[in-house]
Specification:
The protein has 460 residues and is of the alpha/beta class. The chain is built from 15 helices and 18 strands. It has two domains: 178 residues, Alpha-Beta Complex (Aspartate Aminotransferase, domain 1), CATH 3.90.1150.10; 276 residues, Type I PLP-dependent aspartate aminotransferase-like (Major domain) (Aspartate Aminotransferase, domain 2), CATH 3.40.640.10. A hairpin with a 2-residue loop joins strand 3 and strand 4. Bound molecules: pyridoxal-5'-phosphate (PLP). Belongs to the class-III pyridoxal-phosphate-dependent aminotransferase family. BioA subfamily.
Length: 460
């Protein structure tokens, strides 16, 4: 049975039709128009019934290995018994309480633990529910700090080419991906955009280190002229994920930290995707041995269970914004700030890191997986194979840019047929699996990606 026929089976059809009629799915087009033709490429919509470990099971009992951690959030598998138990216990105590004038153990413990991970350099945690909000909060706090200090002109921000920081209007303003900005551009605050340290720009004998230096120089040139108008630069440390798993040398982080100090602007590290062990260390900034002024976390922090985000910052910033009169103190009133259930899932997640020595495990698994993938990367249509921690990516040469989206959709649906959940970004195929794959699951993932690649390439 081919893909489309399979998904048209009656029992599935009912749920698919009901979902399409009532749910507005994000980033989903079930029929994808093929450019310059009247044809459509049909893409499946899959009703998932349950999950365990890295596996997702649909309502017909078919399984898919979740090789992208359900949009990069799931670290320790679906329906993880340790997190389940912690949540059940918390449910019997307190589901939610507002965080204004009240507090509770889960939020205190989580803040203390995360602060200790930064050696108390970032000792204050402010909570929200999604990544984009954390970015907005960091931007507001940075502006607010300079405002309270009397630098009323410091209200612009810098971001990198191909950056992604979320899709609310403030976060979208510091995002530089055409697809997401698109029609909304006219609604957004103007932002300075500087050169990405993308290490694929290797040419003329440059190495990744030199590329990072050139990109940092670009920042310095801008600040020489305009630092009096700029509050902060926001970056995704080491990997620009949504921009296409763009990786760069950690020296860039070191240089940017220095330049920010020299020119009096804040460094906001958006570790929403790269934090929580994804790059091989708990925080990606640790690869460069630096701390930002603001660090945003979300996605993996609850193990992929519940929406939670936070911004961590320094004593200096906290004190200047907090200990002022009411007019000058920070405002961001989020109903579910520091939700106890979400904090409890986050605490359980951090306990798993500790109990099972996860960072150690990651350092072993990443070598194994890289080795196994190496035979695939010899294919002449594959370029720029790259890896950082538990992220692998490569680009597939597709000459006609209009064909890249079709390739991505084909890859997605062919992978599903091979029991693998993957969602390439244009012609960039990537793996970002949970940290708990066993030997057989690693083998399945590698075989399925090989098979999918060959099927998609030969079907052209
Ligand atoms: C996903 C992501 C965000 C936005 O998080 P949401 O929870 O989807 O709003 C922001 N920054 C980065 C780097 C991300 O990957």
């Amino acid at each position: 049975m081919n893909n489309i026929a399979y998904y048209k089976k009656k029992s599935l059809d009912n749920l698919v039709m009901r979902s399409l009629n009532s749910v507005w799915h994000p980033c989903t087009q079930i029929k994808y128009p093929i450019k310059n033709t009247n044809n459509f490429y049909e893409i499946p919509l899959i009703p998932i019934s349950h999950g365990y470990g890295p596996w997702l099971i649909d309502v017909l009992g078919r399984r898919y290995l979740d090789a992208i951690s359900s949009w990069w959030v799931n670290l320790f598998g679906h329906s993880n018994s340790y997190i389940n138990t912690a949540l059940k216990n918390q449910l019997n105590k307190l589901e939610h309480v507002m965080l204004s004038n009240l507090t509770h153990k889960p939020v205190i413990k989580l803040s203390e633990k995360l602060s200790s991970f930064t050696k108390y350099k970032l000792g204050h945690c402010f909570y929200s529910s999604d990544g984009a909000s954390a970015v907005e909060i960091a931007l507001k706090m940075s502006f607010h700090f300079w405002y309270n200090k009397g630098f009323l002109n410091k209200k612009k921000f810098i971001c990198l080419q191909n950056s992604y920081h979320g899709e609310t209007l403030g976060a979208l303003a510091v995002t530089n991906i055409k697809l997401f900005k698109g029609i909304y551009k006219s609604l957004l605050k103007k932002t300075y955009i500087i050169t990405t340290p993308d290490s694929r720009n290797l040419n003329k004998g440059n190495n990744a280190h030199e590329i990072a230096r050139c990109a940092a120089f670009d920042l310095e040139i801008l600040l020489k002229k305009s630092s009096n108008k700029i509050a902060a630069i926001i970056i995704e440390p080491l990997v620009q994920c949504a921009g296409g798993m763009i990786m760069y040398d950690s020296v860039y982080l070191k240089l940017v930290r220095e330049i920010c100090n020299n020119y009096n602007i804040h460094l906001i590290a958006d570790e929403i995707a790269v934090g929580c062990g994804r790059t091989g260390k708990f925080f990606a900034c640790e690869h460069a041995d630096i701390w930002p002024d603001f660090l945003c976390l979300s996605k993996g922090i609850t193990g992929g269970y519940l929406p939670l985000s936070l911004v961590m910052t320094t004593d200096k910033i906290y004190n200047l914004i907090y200990y002022k009169n009411n007019m000058n103190s920070f405002l961001h009133s989020h109903s579910y700030s520091g939700n106890p259930l979400a904090c409890c899932a986050a605490l359980a997640t951090l306990e798993i890191f500790n109990k099972h020595n996860i960072l150690q495990r990651i350092s072993q698994d990443m070598k194994k997986i890289t080795k196994k993938l190496t035979s695939l990367i010899t294919h002449p249509q594959i370029i720029n194979f790259r890896q950082q921690g538990m992220i692998w990516a490569f680009d597939v040469i597709i000459e006609n840019p209009a064909q890249r989206e079709i390739f991505s959709q084909k890859f997605f649906s062919t992978a599903l047929k091979n029991e693998l959940l993957l969602r390439p970004i244009g012609n960039t195929v990537y793996l970002m699996p949970p940290y708990i794959l066993n030997k057989n699951e690693i083998k399945h993932m590698i075989l399925a990606i090989f098979k999918t690649f060959n099927e998609v390439i030969s079907s052209k």
